[in-house]
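::Encoded backbone::
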Amino acid sequence: MYQSRWAAFGVLSLGGFLFVLLVCGSQSQTRRALAAVQEKKVSDKPEAEKEAEPTGDPKAGQDVFRFETFGNEGFWTDAMRLPKGMEDEKFTPLQALEAGLHVDVEAVPADLKDALAAELKTDLSAKNAPLMNDPKTTMKLVKANAVIGVVAKGEKVGISCAICHTITDNSVFEMPLKGSVGRRLDGRATHSIDMGKLLAMAANSRAYYPNLQLELDGKTIGRAPRDDLLARPQGVLALDFPKKFNSGEPVAPRR
């Protein structure tokens, strides 16, 4: 009798164990099936509707692109002395536009915005557009970070990526093939900027020479010695500077 009971108990236990395995296995298979269906639903969605994985802080990236100078304000202010050159040359907002610089209308100080917008509708003469012909206005725009790519850092001025890679929508003013005033359009190439004019305006433009390949009085200054320069393929640009290279004489490019 006892053997029969133990046999019956063994059969029930084995049956229960098999039932648990069956249920658990079914649940596991069900979960896998549901996950596969859900994954298929997601993969069948258009790319635009899929939930994007977070990749960073877009606003922080935008600020870096627009305003980060990576410390170059020391070079532009202390070595090149660009702000000093702008003051010495009495660099006006009109001249800035002529040099291909762009102005962010949303950063223009409130006390200037309406007045400048009105002046930009005139013939831009000193009589009809006094602010556009006033170098003091330029410095106010620079300090407000309204001149795109020219970044105020306290008493110094640096240059950001945006100077070559941002234009505006021309919503306020466009100077054909030159600068403009409007809302920023980041990432667009500034094809009209006259970097030569801006560099030459610095009070100590010679500080930029190590970044170039120049020939002065038969000697080269820059990234490569003369022999390497002559050995390069045809089409590499060099510059012939006259002996008195800061005398105002024209500098002719040579290929």
